[in-house]
Amino acid sequence: MESLVINGHKKPHVICLALPAQSHVKAMLKLAQLLHHKGLQITFVNTEYIHKRMLKSGCCLDGSSDFRFESIPDGIPRSSEDDDGSQLLVQYLETTFKAPFLDLVAKLPNPPTCIVSDGFMSIFCIDAAQKLGIPIMLYWTLSACGLQITFVNTDNIHKRMLKSGGPHCLDGSSDFRFETFPDSIPRNSEEDDASELILPYVETTFLAPFLDLAAKLPNPPTCIVSDGFVSCFTVDDAKKLGIPIMLYWTLSACGFMGIFHVHSLTEKGLAPPKG
Fold it and tell me: With left for phi above 0 and alpha for psi between -120 and 50, is residue 87 left, alpha or beta?
């Protein structure tokens, strides 16, 4: 079996697999369409039940040579065609999905090069990817309102935000909470931001109190979104916690472009500035 070849290069073949529920399928389908638009070959896998419902609602699932729809049985017993079996879904995900999924993959005309799985399907998709010897990416298809956020500041920054925004500006809610940990930076006064000491203290004193805070949270974190400038400790923390991390570089666009062009500016003699 050979992958499709475009301009002498094999097209990556991605299997997209969503949790069999309407909003999850819609979100995954949008991602699959974007990947296809970028030139990837897509196999979009539904359960047979969801596939039939989509056809019944008027969705065109004919696909094409490089965007195909496939389906697998979910094994869920149903009392009628309108019974979505949602109350049994998690139980059957654990026991009946992996084997028919692997059977389907073995029959595809082109072998897949990776899997993009709904995070809620990871209960069997990770094992399936390991058996196939291909990478897997988990795409969490729930909306932003379904996320639980813990926003972590240092004690000093937390106090300064309360002082500028009022005593209740950081009250948060059950699914958006603010937490703090000490930065251990010596200060002359409350107004001293000690910015000249931040980097050495980030490298030496932030890791342990952050891990202590994470251990005390009522719900264990599933991932970290970290400012790229504090990655010197957050990457290690993520490894110790066994969770993924995403680095979000918070510098402005002009700052980024300045860093991007500093080499050429130096070559032209324009940097560093001369007095």
Answer: alpha
Alpha carbons 172 and 257: distance in angstroms, whole number: 35
E strand or H helix that includes residue 167:
none
Catalytic residue among 36, 51, 74, 118: 118
Q: Measuring CA to CA, which residue among 72, 79, 56 is closest to residue 121?
A: 72
Structural domain boundaries in the chain: 5-142, 146-253
Taking the C-alpha atoms of residue 4 and residue 14, their distance in angstroms, rounded to an integer, is 12
pLDDT at 143: 67
In three-state secondary structure terms, 64 is strand
The pLDDT score that the predictor gives to residue 4 is: 53
Q: Give the pLDDT score at 3.
A: 47
Q: Considering 24, 36, 74, 183, which one is annotated as catalytic? A: 24
pLDDT along the chain (275 residues), means of 10: 51 93 88 93 93 80 83 87 77 90 95 93 92 93 75 92 89 87 89 84 93 92 91 92 88 70 78 69
CATH number of 5-142: 3.40.50.2000
DSSP labels for 213-250?
HHHHSSS--S-EEEEGGGHHHHHHHHHHHT--EEEE--
pTM of the model: 0.55
- Has 82 been annotated as catalytic? no
Q: Which CATH class is domain 146-253?
A: alpha beta
Residue in 242, 223, 235, 85 with CA at minimum distance from that of residue 142: 223
Do residues 179 and 151 touch, judged by C-beta distance below 8 A? Answer: yes
Based on the residue annotation, tell me whether 127 is a catalytic residue of this protein.
Answer: no
Q: What is the pLDDT of residue 61?
A: 72
Same fold for the pair 5-142 and 146-253? yes
